[in-house]
Amino acid sequence: MGQKLRGRAWRRLQQLRMKARAIAAFSDLDPANAILIANHMKSCSCHMCGNPRRYWGEITLQEKRQALRERDQE
Ligand SMILES: [Zn+2]
Q1: 20 lies in which domain range?
Q2: How far is the CA of 49 from the centre of ligand 1 (A)?
């Protein structure tokens, strides 16, 4: 499997592409606000997308990863 080198320029291009898509998809929003959701194309915080502590009393994904990292270091 050849690994493609995808450096900063490629990531910047993809980010630009997704910002353009967000602006097009959320044309009812101000473009400055639309690009804020270019990474996920969602603008909701329902029980599926929102903070799990708020809805389920669980820790967030980020906290789970950190806990795994701390466990693996020991
Ligand atoms: Zn949602």
Answers
A1: 1-43
A2: 4
Residue 14 Cα, ligand 1 centroid: separation in angstroms? 24
Q: What is the pTM of this model?
A: 0.57
Q: How far is the CA of 40 from the centre of ligand 1 (A)?
A: 11
- How far is the centre of ligand 1, averaged over its atoms, from the C-alpha of 2 (Å)? 37
Q: 71 C-alpha to center of ligand 1: Å?
A: 31
Query: Distance between CA 8 and CA 39 in Å, rounded?
Result: 16
Give residue-wise pLDDT tens across range 10-46.
Answer: 999 999 999 999 999 999 999 999 999 999 888 888 8
Q: How many CB atoms lie within 10 A of CB 64?
A: 12
Regarding whether 21 and 11 lie in a shared domain, the answer is yes
d(CA 19, CA 3): 26
